Amino acid sequence: MKRFIQQLSLSCWLIGVFTIVSLAQNSPTPSKSIPHLKQQGGTTQLIVHDKPYLILGGELANSSFTSTEYMQPIWPKLKALHLNTVLAPVYWELIEPEEGVFDFALLDQLIFEAKRHDFKLILLWFASWKNSMSSHVPSWVKTDQERFPRVKDDQGKSHEILTPFSESNLMADLRAYQALMRHIKEIDGEQHTIIMMQPENEIGMLPVARDHSLLANKQFSADVPVALMKYLVENKSSLVPEFYERWKQYGFKTEGNWEDIFGVGSHTDELFMAWYYAKFTNKIVEAGKAIHPLPMFVNAALIRPGRKPGTGYPSAGPLPHIMDIWKAGAPSIDFFSPDFYFPNIEYWCDLYTRQGNPLFIPEHRFDNTVAAKAFFTIGHYESLGFSPFSIDSKPKPAEEDLAKGYKILAQLTPLITEQHGQGKIKGILLDKEKQETILTFGPYEFVVKHSHTLGWSAEAKNEVWEPAGAIIIQTQENEFYVAGTGVAITFRRTDADKIVGILKADEGYFDQGNWNILRHLNGDQTHQGRHIRIFQGNYTIQRFELYDYE
C-alpha cells in the first residue's frame, strides 16, 4: 500500500509539473497585484489584473468538477452562456484521500482547462461543511468519530455534521486548506485564474438549532466570550435591528452565560452556534490568507418563511439577523452572501447590504428569472456579480435569456465599473405584481414600467408576466444608456415646470469599449418620442439623450 501511495504521489507530481509548464506557456502577462477588494465611492469593486472586474458567473452542479472527462462537453456550454467566471467546488475528500497525502493533479488539469477557455475561477471549499452536512470530508475523517466528533441533537443522536467545538476537526480542515492555498499560490500566484475563495458552504446546524454534544454543552453553560461582548458594546449603535432588539429585550446584559444574556430558546441556541461556526471559519480563512490572500467569503442558505432555526433552515449560518455575531467572530471574512431558492430577492439583498457588506450572489436557482435579476442586482446594488447554480444543466445554453443578458453586461462592464459608487447606476426588476418603479437622476425622474403595460404584446394578457430586468447608466447630465429587457421609460423634471423630450435615441453595441450604432430609433421605436422601450424577450443596449422644452 505504501509503495502504491508513493507511485501515485510521483504520478501526481509529474502531472502537476507538466500542467504548471503548460500553464506558464499559455498564460497572459502576470498582473501586478493579487485579486483584491477596493472601495470605489459608495460601492466595493473586485480588482483583477489591476482592473475592476464584474463577475458574470455560474456555479457548476456539485459533482461536475470531479473529472476532466465529465467537464469536457461542459466548457463549450459555459462559453455559449457568455460567462467570464466559473464557481467550482474543490473537495477535501479528493485532494487528501489519505491523511497528509495531497493530490492536486485533477485540480491542476481543471485550472488549465479554465485558462484555456478564458474563464476565471472562484473555488468553493467543500470541506467540514457543505449544505450544513459533512458529506465531503475524507473517509479517514468520517470513520474516526472519536478523533473527529460529530454534533448531537437534543436526543443525543449523532449526525453527519462535524462539530465546530473540536480542535481535531478544526486542525484537520485547516491543514488541508493551507495545503490547497500553498498549491494555488505555486501554480497560479502570478496568473490569477483563481480570483476568490469560498471556505465551506452553507454552514449551519440541523435538525435542531444547536449542537448538544458534551463539548458544545460545556461552552453553552460557560460565560459568553469576552471578545463577543466587547464587540457588541463597542458597536451597539450600529447593530442590526433584529439583534439589537433581542439583546435589548434582556436588558443589554454584558455578563453571564448565553441564556442569561439572550434568554432561553432556539434564538439563543442559534446565536451560540453562530459564534463558534464563525470562529472556526475565521481560523480557516486566516490560515489561508497568510499564504495567499485572495478575497474570501462565506454563503448562507436563507430562511424559509415562518421556519425556526434548525427546523426549516440551517441554524447559525451567516444570515442577516445574526450578522453581528459573524462579523465579531470572523473579521477576516471579506463579505457574506445569500443563496436564492425562493422569491423576495430585493428583500434579502437589502438585508445583506447593511453595515457596508458588499453584495455577491454566488448561487441562484437557474430559472427564468436569472437574467432579469442579474441586471437588477448589478445595477441597483452595484454588486460584485451574479451566479446561477447548476450552470451546466441547460441543453441549449445559447438560447437562454442569461446568455443574452451576460453578452450585453460583458459589453457594458467598463462603463459600469467606471461609474461605480457615484449614484449614476440604477437597476430595475418588474413583473405583474410590481409593474412600475420611479428612479431619480439629478433633476430627471424616470418612470419605468414593465413593457407589457403598453398592451402591445399578447403576453400582456397572461396571468404571470416574465420578469423585466434592466440597468440604466448615466454618463453625462442628459446622456444615458439602458440595457436589458421588458422596460418602457418616460421622463419628467423635478426642479422645473418643463417637458422632457427625447433628443436622440440609438440602439447599438460596445466593441472593445467603443460604442457602435446599429440603428437610429427616433421613430416608431420610441413611439414618436413618447418613451424609450425594450420589449420583453428582447435584449438590447440603447443610448439616449434628453432635452427640455416649454
Quick overview of this protein structure:
This protein has 550 residues and is of the alpha/beta class.
Architecture overview:
There is one protein chain. The protein is of the alpha/beta class. The protein has 2 domains: 54-419, TIM Barrel (Alpha-Beta Barrel), CATH 3.20.20.80; 425-549, Sandwich (Chondroitinase Ac, Chain A, domain 3). It has helices at residues 2-25, 68-71, 74-80, 92-95, 105-116, 139-142, 167-188, 214-221, 226-234, 241-249, 258-262, 266-291, 323-329, 345-352, 370-380, 401-419; strands at residues 36-40, 43-48, 51-53, 55-59, 85-91, 120-130, 150-152, 158-162, 194-201, 297-301, 335-340, 363-364, 385-386, 425-430, 436-441, 444-450, 468-476, 479-485, 487-493, 499-511, 514-520, 532-534, 540-549. A 6-stranded antiparallel sheet has the order 14-17-18-23-20-21. α1 (2-25) packs parallel to α5 (105-116) and α12 runs parallel beside α13.
